[in-house]
Amino acid sequence: MKKCILSIASLALSCLFVALSVSGVLALDYPNKPIRIIVPFAPGGPNDVVARLVAEKLTESWKQQVMVDNKPGADGAIGMELAAKAAPDGYTIILGTSGSVIVTPSLYTKLRYDPVKDFAPITHLTTTPIVLLVNPALPVRSVKELIALAKTKPGQFSYASPSSIFYLVGEMFKLRAGVDVAYIPYKGGAPSMTALISGEVAMLYDTILTVVPQVKAGKARAIAICSAKRSPVMPDVPTMLESGLSDFEASSFSALLAPAKTPPEIVQKLNTEIVRILHMPVVQERLSKMGADIVGSTPAEFSTHIKAELEKYARVIKAAGIPRIK
Amino acid sequence: MTEIIHNLMLGFGVALKPLYLFYCLVGVLLGTLVGVLPGIGALATIAMLLPVTFSLPPEASLIMLAGIYYGAQYGGSTTSILVNIPGEAACVVTCIEGYQMARQGRAGPALSIAALASFFAGSIATGIIVLFGPPLTEVALKFGQAEYFSLMLLGLVGAVVLAHGSLLKAFAMVFLGLLFGLVGTDVYSGITRYNFGTRELFDGIGFVPPAIGLFGFAEIIANMEQKETVEVFTTKVRKMMPSRTDFQASWKAILRGTALGSFLGILPGGGALLSSFVSYTLEKKIAADPARFGKGAIEGVAGPEAANNAGAQTSFIPMLTLGIPGNAVMALMVGAMMIQGIVPGPGVMTERPELFWGLIASMWVGNLLLVVLNLPLIGIWIRLLTIPYRLLFPAILLFCCIGTYSVNNSTFDVLMATGFGLLGYLFRKFDCEPAPLILGFILGPMLEENLRRAMLLSRGDPTVFLTRPISLGILLTAVFLLLLTVLPVIQRTRGVVFKE
Q1: Digit-coded pLDDT (tens) for A85-115
Q2: How open is the CA angle B456-B461-B465, to the nearest 5 degrees?
Q3: How, if at all, do strands A182-185 and A158-161 pair?
Q4: Residue of A28, A173, B409, B446 with fewest CB within 10 Å of its CB?
């Protein structure tokens, strides 16, 4: 009799266990197969490097293959769409950036993904500050001088933007500073940097990583950094706030997100492990060499951040009259 | 001068270390293999191997990746000559003459000249990098949007010259190529054009699907149509080395191609690409007997091959001296450096001289390895042609599909390539050539982007193309070239009229 009850009880318990693990509620045996990190950009870019670093360390600690799957195209939209529609079992996650999560949804109306509704944020990986550069031949050494010069010659100067987030930052600057400079789009950091160095454009916004070598070599001059605090990589460069512009903060983030219906336990497990990886000395060293500041926030904190960024740029788009594209 | 010698000694000291020599060998072997296989290109291979470079010392990873890049240029000419499929955009021209030479049983000389021309050009280009690297970047920086526009226009005029059939059909193909190039997103406004709502066409059609489709699939379909066994030239192959006359015909072309490629390669963004097209145009225009072109003229292989290898080497210059990648492959190299924690920029030359000079020295070593490897291999490649076509073409088809897929991990690209294949087959039926279409397709978007940006920068002033001296010079050359092409046709028709 006892044996019978015991065997039935253990059978029931194991059934419960299996049912719960299959449904992911227990998440005890996650991960038990390879995990795919979708990177919606071509390999070799700074975001791709971060993703590969995290993938490498996760593979080491979880003994499961974590691989990067590059799915470039459409400013990140192709990859994001794929991730939004993927099975929410924690085996597909996506590397999101400011471009694909904030800017593309803000500029395009008919996207097939919603950055808030279709995704469950895992963690905010890094923040990379954006820097405003000018051509060294220009006789300005600070934002105030730049604004003064631009006001004397409205419409004569232009700024280069490697991709759409820098476009929005540039427009934000125009609004706050009240200047009229022309927007010249370029396809990527390389041609826009060439344009700045050769003097074709007067100003350029780009992330700190690409900017540092040129500034060190004297080919470009950094006059302001758009983050809230100065960066230890360029301690002499004042922030926009310090330079007198109010409510001006912009940076580029890289983050990991999962499809919306992924069980919260799995999201939490990912978050805990990734945050631990972010604080490893070797990872910190690699990332800071790239100019990135490590964040490693909780899912809730990151969710708030996303919403704040979306709102901020929505206001810029409205105030600057930027047309949204269908 | 002593400084240069010192740097070279440093460089060779690094490049000839057994470990780095090994990685150089691996790189060039892989590159040749990848170049020979139709469809899979250097870009995909480097992207796939990037994670591997995590664990390698930085010099080794860069040497290997660089080896893959210029190795693929060597290998790409093999597929262009043997099966008329361009492995890279720069190899399209080699298809034109090289394949014709192969059909005449002269695949051996074609392949040898391609290898030797590439080696010569590569050595000279490496020398140029060593001697003139940094000053040349200053020249490259003088090329603004207006100059690029004029250069692309010159390229388009040259595209018409690429055709050896009806001039009208060539014009038509160029314009069709321009139209295909319109598909995608407008850089300035972000509005999508002709993508019919599909996400995959957001960034445009891409180079690989049309190239593989028009050259590869179309060729296979056309060959399937022939009832008798395909291509008797497989049995007629005799000599492997070029004859004396071949050398005499080619050496000047090689020199010209090297000069062109070395210069055009420095220009960021499409420079190396243009070099083979411009070289072919030049050779055809100054040849004593232009009618030979299109039927296997060896200058049409020697010049462009030299040009594209020189261009491939010098395209490293902006990346190494300024940290600005000139094309997608260079951008991957930048990624490889970042993975190692090295931020590319003007400082790399002074902060990590062993990396900088070691890489440059390894490029020459790699070129040497390639020519030593490739010349004997030519015999094997030729024997590949003797495989019955019914066994060969499924393999080609397979590699083309894999290659097309691997660019964007997208099956849509493969479907597009198939569509282009059918289109290419139709073109063959109508006696229209794909090369001008491809050139129009590549240059069209660049032309538009540079035109609009030049106009933006000049605030709508169109005279900017004429007031800037370099731009004016290039435009005049383009007009001259156009006249050269069109005038003989006019004279002939006038001659006919007068006769009557």
Answers
A1: 888 888 999 999 998 899 888 888 878 889 8
A2: 90
A3: parallel
A4: A28
**In the block, which residue shows the tokens 């050269």?**
B484
Domains and CATH numbers, chain A: 29-127+252-320 (3.40.190.150), 129-225 (3.40.190.10)
A219 within 8 A of B346, measured Cβ to Cβ: yes
Check CB contact under 8 Å for B188 and A185: yes
C-beta of residue B180 within 8 angstroms of C-beta of residue B445: no
**Could you tell me the CA-to-CA distances from A102 to A43, A252, B146, B367 in Å, in that order?**
21, 10, 34, 46
Is the ipTM, as predicted for this complex, more than 0.85? no
Question: Which residues touch A252 (CB under 8 Å, ≥6 apart)?
Answer: A97, A98, A99, A127, A128, A130, A165, A207
The structure tokens listed for A254 are 């890289």
Nearest by CB: B199 against A81, A107, A216: A81
E strand or H helix at B216:
none
Q: In a 10 Å sphere around its CB, with 0-12 CB exposed, 13-18 middle and 19+ buried, how is residue B268 labelled? A: buried
Q: Report helix angle A264-278 to A46-62, nearest 10.
A: 110
pTM: 0.77
Q: Does B294 touch chain A (CB under 8 A)?
A: no
CB contact set of A320 (below 8 Å; sequence gap of 6+): A171, A172, A174, A175
pLDDT tens for residues B350-408? 778 888 888 888 888 988 988 888 878 777 777 776 777 778 788 888 888 887 887 77
| B195 touching A (Cβ < 8 Å) | no
**B407, two tokens:** 């660019």
Which of A194, A204, A211 is the mutation pick for testing B, counting most B CBs within 10 A? Answer: A194
Closest CA to A130 of A206, A77, A185: A206
